[in-house]
Design brief:
The structure holds 2 protein chains of 2 kinds. Chain A is of the alpha+beta class. Chain A folds into 3 domains: 189 residues, Aldehyde Oxidoreductase, domain 3; 298 residues, Aldehyde Oxidoreductase, domain 4; 146 residues, Aldehyde oxidase/xanthine dehydrogenase, molybdopterin binding domain (Aldehyde Oxidoreductase, domain 4, 2-Layer Sandwich). In chain A, 27% of the residues lie in helices and 24% in strands. Chain A contains 20 helices and 26 strands. In chain A, a hairpin with a 5-residue loop joins β9 and β10. In chain A, α11 runs parallel beside α19 and α18 packs across α19. Chain A is globular, with a radius of gyration of 27 Å. In chain B, 28% of the residues lie in helices and 27% in strands. Chain B is built from 3 helices and 5 strands; from the N terminus they run βαβααβββ. Chain B is of the alpha+beta class. The chains are: A alpha+beta, B alpha+beta. The interface between A and B is medium-sized, with 45 and 25 residues.
Chain lengths: 755, 82
């Protein structure tokens, strides 16, 4: 392969996946694949109640079962006082994290962990769990966001007072926080509008739906030196959180990452790892814990559900004059709904003078919500992009044209403050307009919907090393798990800098002792941020290679240039020397100064924000309410697609998850507050037969802060689908659906009611 | 002169509602120090869980960042992704 149209040799090519063979042959080692001699099985006892006070836990009978080696409850975990809840660098709220890990005075949701057992077999551990006696005082519960905000709602945390309001409330509340982002004067903006649409929308809580359940092997020695092998989105995160939760030194914990079978934000925290460490400490043996699918649904983070009010106004010519959003997101049992991110992203695709977005972070008796791709943004976009579509229809303007007329561009001020730099939203709209799907005829009960989305993207602490091996091959070692193809993209970027064949470069994910700290994989940060660090390290290696050639030729380093993987004299004045390949120089390193390897660490800033625009065609079955996705196209500004195949995979994956969110996925709670559908038979994610082949169009408006122009790509694709589907349904049958999921019963009911 | 943009929430609490403050400083550390001198207590808010956008580019950990003479600095909540 000698290059491609973008002027690079490897950037933008579809190289073979470095992890592909292992994954398709089953050789890849995921979290549950690791074992140690003498290993015990750990299992967790979970609350059957949505909200209850724990009066007593008696583990005596369980501890006497032959084969049971350890039992732990919250009493075994250090209690973290409020003043120390956020100690350390970039901390989570350790107090809440600890309470979520193992319930203390109260259980706060169906599935909340209350005790754990380690035994010589799974059967014995299960038997022992059944013998743990827990006396509960059942309390009233609340799982709905509006119900939780009501004055008379049962309060989950007596010490929780609404933040962001002045004066500070004297009465505790389930509303953890109020946030507000605003520019201009929305009252004046709506006064200037000729057409206003205002509507309420609601979304259910849904799970990230990763196929691999949480799994860990942990071993703590008598000297408190701990080893953890697990699947997560950040093994440095696991190390940091375990240390914070168990009052351990970070240096006493080593975490080795496994391959990860999906995370999507759901593996950016810990559930099992600290429990397994404590069981290991107590038993003196390694512990393996693997969640069942039911445990994943009942005990790990879904994303928030919501109740939203969206109002948008425009002049007859299509100029949007004002926009408001009231977003109420539930956070589950502990504060932390991504409502501020929904407020910040929602209206950013549009250049609107007057915007106000108010958000409420609300606790409910559900598992604690955790990130899901572009946390908060897809929820807000469902309401806002539906409202934009309705506004366009009322104005008699094509929805795509209305978006073009009001599109954000470089220099647009966002509602959350900053002015946008170089962005590619208009280009995604132009690509949508030109796409063949837009002119494909539609039949009866068929409709087409458009929706757009925005995400900031993220940088952060990143560390990597690049080593020249003795034979001239190159090893790139980084410290952030590869979820979406980062090994491939790091290899490509390194090969580009070195000017060598891609097969000469291998990328591995090192454990927590192999590199300095890495922020976890998330926020679409790794190819951007770790890529920048690897590029810097590779460039330093190239400088050293030139230096070694200069020493070999006894000329100045400035007289040596590096081209296509070779050191060459830079012009005739440098002298006449045969080029030295990377292999030539690598073989001679013992004589020229020793091994060549560079470690780099940086807190990489300046991620390029990105936009996407989606086109969805549906057909609605008026007899069953079933919505069939006929055709779907996702268009996205990737800055620069390092490996277009992986970018397309991210786009298709995000769309598939978004369609599931739109049409089927939901947590269903009974009146008793128990989750009714904790399994893939009853919690329906899309399968291949539900989806057409999802078309993708990559737009490339390079991010000026990255050497190759990279923008994150993993978050954007899940933002527009719910609104795109809703807008397509409206186009098909003239009904505006405002409640997710738009499952057959809801669609049928709307068709029957005619609204 | 650097134009500092604060959210209305922060402005209501610390600056009497003024969301745009002009300061003269070359680094983010100096900007935060000046703001805190002018509006006591503001540093505690800006130093925890906040990011900045300097001329539209977001910096999550910003205290050491240099700021150009006519820059716009906007404080916003720190961003985590999935």
């Amino acid at each position: 392969m000698d290059g491609n149209a973008n002027g690079y040799r490897w950037i933008g090519t579809r190289t073979i996946r470095p992890d592909g063979v292992d994954k398709v042959t089953g050789r890849a080692a995921f979290g549950a694949d690791f074992s140690l001699p003498g290993m015990l099985v750990g299992k967790i006892l979970r609350s059957p109640h949505a909200h209850a006070r724990i009066l007593r836990i008696n583990t005596d009978k369980a501890e006497t079962v032959p084969g049971v080696k350890a039992v732990v409850t919250s009493a075994d975990f250090p209690e973290i006082p409020p003043a120390e809840a956020t100690k350390g660098s970039s901390p989570p709220n350790y107090r809440h994290l600890s309470q979520n890990l193992m319930a203390r005075e109260k259980v706060l949701y169906d599935g909340h962990a209350v005790a754990a057992v380690a035994a010589t077999s799974a059967a014995i551990a299960t038997e022992a769990l059944a013998l743990i006696e827990v006396d509960y005082e059942i309390l009233p519960h609340v799982t709905g966001v509006l119900e939780a905000m009501a004055d008379e709602a049962p309060v989950l945390h007596e010490d929780l007072f609404t933040g962001g309001v002045d004066p500070k409330p004297e009465k505790s509340s389930n509303i953890a926080k109020r946030v507000e982002f605003a520019i201009g004067d929305t009252d004046a903006g709506f006064d200037a509008a000729d057409v206003i649409v205002e509507r309420d929308y609601d979304t259910e809580g849904i799970h990230q739906g990763y196929i691999e359940p949480h799994a860990v092997v942990a071993s703590m020695g008598a000297d408190r030196q701990a080893n953890i092998w697990c699947s997560s989105q950040g093994h440095f995160m696991v190390r940091q959180y375990c240390a914070g939760l168990l009052n351990m030194s970070i240096g006493d914990i080593k975490v080795t990452p496994a391959e990860i079978g999906g995370g999507f934000g759901g593996k950016t925290t810990v559930y099992l790892e600290p429990v397994a460490l404590l069981l290991s400490k107590k038993s003196g043996l390694p512990i393996k814990m693997v969640m069942t699918r039911e445990e994943v649904f009942r005990g790990t983070g879904p994303t928030s559900g919501s109740y939203m009010t969206i109002k948008v106004g425009a002049k007859r010519d299509g100029t949007i004059t004002a926009a408001e959003a009231d977003l109420r997101f539930f956070a589950g049992a502990f504060p932390g709904a991504p409502v501020h991110l929904g407020c910040m992203c929602g209206f950013t695709p549009y250049d609107i003078e007057n915007v106000k977005a108010i958000g409420y972070d609300v606790v409910t008796n559900r598992p604690k919500a955790i990130s899901y791709r572009a946390p908060g943004a897809p929820i807000a976009a469902f309401g806002i992009e539906s409202a934009i579509d309705e506004l366009a229809k009322k104005l008699g303007i094509e929805p795509l044209a209305l978006r073009e007329m009001n599109a954000a561009k470089e220099g647009t001020r966002t509602a959350y403050g900053p002015t946008l730099g170089v962005v590619g939203f208009e280009e995604t709209l132009e690509a949508a307009k030109m796409h063949p799907q837009m002119s494909e005829p539609l039949g009866p009960n068929q409709g087409r919907g458009i929706a757009s989305g925005y995400w900031f993207n993220v940088g952060g602490e990143s560390s990597a090393s690049v080593s020249i091996n003795e034979d001239g091959t190159i090893t790139v070692t980084s410290g952030a798990p590869d979820i979406g193809g980062s090994r491939a993209s790091l290899c490509i970027m390194a090969a580009e800098i070195f000017g060598v064949d891609i097969d000469q470069v291998r990328a591995v994910i090192g454990d927590t002792t192999a590199t300095a700290f890495n922020r976890h994989t998330g926020g679409s940060r790794v190819t951007f941020a770790l890529g920048a660090v690897v590029i810097e390290a590779a460039e330093d290696c190239v400088r050293q290679l030139r230096e070694r050639a200069a020493k070999t030729w006894d000329i100045d380093i400035d007289a040596v240039e590096w081209e296509n993987g070779e050191a060459r004299p830079a012009g005739e004045n440098a002298g006449k020397f045969e080029p030295l390949t990377l292999m030539d120089i690598a073989e001679k390193t013992p004589m020229t100064g020793g091994p060549i390897g560079v470690k780099k660490s940086s807190n990489v800033q300046g991620p390029g924000p990105a936009f996407g625009t989606h086109i969805c065609d549906v057909e609605v079955d008026r007899e069953t309410g079933h919505v069939k996705i006929l055709r779907y196209t996702a268009i996205q500004d990737a800055g620069r697609a390092i490996h277009p195949g992986y970018v397309e995979g991210q786009m298709q994956g995000g769309v598939a998850q978004g369609i599931g969110w739109a049409l089927n996925e939901e947590y269903i709670y009974g009146e008793d507050g128990r989750l009714q559908n904790p399994g893939f038979l009853d919690y329906r994610i899309p399968v291949a037969s539900d989806l057409p082949m999802i078309d993708t169009v990559i737009v490339e408006i390079p991010n000026p802060t990255h050497p190759f122009g990279v923008r994150g790509v993993g978050e954007i694709p899940i933002i527009p689908p719910m609104a795109a589907v809703a807008n397509a349904i409206e186009d098909a049958v003239g009904l505006r659906l405002t409640s997710l999921p738009m499952s057959p019963p809801k669609v049928l009911s709307a068709l029957d009611d005619g609204h | 002169m650097t134009d500092v943009v604060l959210s209305r929430e922060i402005a209501r609490k610390f600056t009497g509602g003024e969301t745009r403050i002009v300061v003269e400083a070359g680094t983010m550390r100096a900007i935060v120090r000046q703001l805190d001198e002018k509006f006591p207590g503001l540093k505690s808010i800006l130093g925890e869980g906040m990011a900045v956008a300097i001329d539209g580019t977001i910096f999550q950990d910003f205290f050491l960042e240099e700021v150009g003479p006519d820059a716009e600095v906007c404080f916003l909540p720190a961003i985590e992704g999935g």
